[in-house]
Write a structure and sequence with these properties.
Helices cover 25% and strands 28% of the residues. The strands form 7 sheets. Strands 12-13-17-16 form a 4-stranded mixed sheet. It has a 3-stranded mixed sheet with strand order 1-11-8. A hairpin with a 2-residue loop joins strand 12 and strand 13. Helix 2 runs antiparallel to helix 3. The protein contains 9 helices and 17 strands. By secondary structure, it is α+β, with helices and mostly antiparallel strands. The N and C termini lie far apart (95 Å). The structure holds zinc ion (2 copies).
């Protein structure tokens, strides 16, 4: 048992809803920081804590479901797996507007409370990361993405009510809005937020819809064809409007974020690609023609005579497609010179002859005097 909510409100375990409400009202007036204008900083903090504590207790004991859970288990979940109470969990601001309208500003109290109402729309967006190979990004590809999303329940049109029959929401009196007044002294800030009990519709179900259990949304599986554009970079964010969660008439977007996998042996820098190729010393000295394979592409690379180890040779336009303009990046081939570890007698003889010849000319190609 974490907290004794009954003790916090000073009511017995069999108190009626009216008794609970009046107990809260009395305590809220007493501990409201505005009712204690001479409190110092430390006392003010304590008052805020106490005020939050009684609000938490009231939130639980005034809600038949939460109360039942608390009575049975000794604790309550305010969100999935979350038993700590935040101001956004408090659903009775408008019931006690006369008290809450005098809420002081600038403190943790206010900011915590207001943050709960922001980004309602952003919460409906879904982001999915998908991993694709570099080859898929090179050629472009259509990928099937499967995911789940909440969609407005067709059976009740999102009202959460059987046959769409609803009554006026008591919390907001049908306006769909809750007025919150924040401030102290001369400062009064009125902000209007969506009513939490009816989600802004101003109506609550007469009988809860059996398909969506009153939530107004159902979870559906979606299959989406995602076109990965040619030349797509990693972290490319693609937006699919209206493919996020929907709630009532609001619908969010789906974001597909690409994760382009590394390919062994290929380095990518923007739209340019880098690979390596080993050739022999004679090939480097005399020049040669190399076949370069990149995915399904075959290129012929001319290696000029006198190519140095570590030199980069360019295959123009053989890199990744430029996504936002015409053309392609380039493919660079780094030339490595392989030195044989074993030689036949004849090879050894030939290299020795070459060495003597080079020595006589006192230097390598182009450096002899
Ligand atoms: Zn429904
Ligand atoms: Zn309402």
């Amino acid at each position: 048992m974490s907290k004794d909510y009954y003790q916090v409100l000073g009511v017995s375990r069999d108190a009626s809803p009216e008794e609970i409400k009046s107990a809260f009202r009395k305590l809220a007036r007493k501990y409201h920081p505005d009712a204690n204008p001479n409190a110092n900083e430390k006392d003010r903090k304590a008052l805020e804590e106490k005020f939050k504590e009684i609000s938490e207790a009231y939130e639980v004991l005034s809600d038949p479901q939460k109360k039942k859970m608390y009575d049975q288990t000794g604790s309550v979940e305010f969100g999935p797996g979350r038993s700590d109470f935040n101001w956004q969990d408090f659903t009775h601001f408008s019931d006690f507007e006369d008290i809450f309208s005098r809420i002081f500003g600038g403190s943790d109290f206010g900011s915590q409370f207001f943050s709960g109402f922001r980004n309602e729309r952003a919460d409906l967006d879904i982001a999915i990361r998908i991993r694709v190979s570099l080859e898929d990004a090179f050629y472009g590809k259509t990928k099937i993405v499967k995911y789940r999303r909440n969609k407005t329940c067709d059976a009740c049109g999102g009202t959460g009510a059987e046959n769409g029959r609803t009554n006026v929401c008591k919390t907001c009196g049908g306006t769909g809005q809750q007025r919150i007044v924040q401030g102290q002294g001369f400062f009064r800030m009125v902000s209007v937020t969506v009513c939490r009990d009816c989600g802004g519709s101003g109506r609550v179900p007469e009988k809860v819809c059996s398909v969506c259990k009153g939530t107004g949304t159902v979870t559906i599986r979606e299959t989406l064809e995602v076109k990965i554009p040619k030349g797509a970079p990693s972290n490319l964010k693609m937006r699919y409007r209206g493919k996020g969660q929907s709630h009532g008439r609001s619908v969010g977007d789906l974001f597909i974020i690409l994760d382009v996998a590394d390919e062994p042996g290929i380095r990518r820098e923007g739209d340019d690609l880098y690979v390596q190729k080993e050739i022999t010393f004679p090939q480097a000295a005399l020049g040669t023609e190399l076949e370069i394979n990149l995915f399904k592409e075959r290129y012929t690379l001319q290696v000029p005579a006198g190519t140095q180890p570590g030199e980069y040779l360019k295959l123009k336009g053989a890199g990744m497609h430029h996504m936002r303009r015409n053309g392609n990046g380039d493919l660079y081939v780094k030339i490595n010179i392989s030195v044989p570890k074993k030689l036949t007698a004849r090879q050894r003889e030939l290299i020795q002859q070459l060495d003597e010849d080079l020595d006589r000319k006192k230097g390598w190609f182009g450096r002899s005097k």
